[in-house]
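So, can you check this one?
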Amino acid sequence: MLTGKQKRVLRAQAHHLSPIFQVGKTGVNENMVTQIEEALEKRELIKITILQNCMEDKTEVAQQLSEGAEAELVQIIGNIIVLYKESIENKKIELP
């Protein structure tokens, strides 16, 4: 579980990132979760956009993605979700 201070550091780093995934009309599926897990292993911190046509609630989508990818939910701001997962091989982010 991340502390408030760690989340603040991650939010600051995520500010400059561009979203690399989009959740659309079909919602969350296994293939998307697998791709997000792989991206988290490479980058540790990613942004995901929830499109207007997504039928599910954004907090539910964030919950499904974070649980599916075993990642920490850093923040939901507008229609953007920020996820963090410590990388095993490509550790770049040092948390306080």
The chain has a mean pLDDT of 95. The domain at 4-84 is CATH 3.30.110.60 (Translation Initiation Factor IF3). The helical segments are 4-14, 30-43, 58-68.
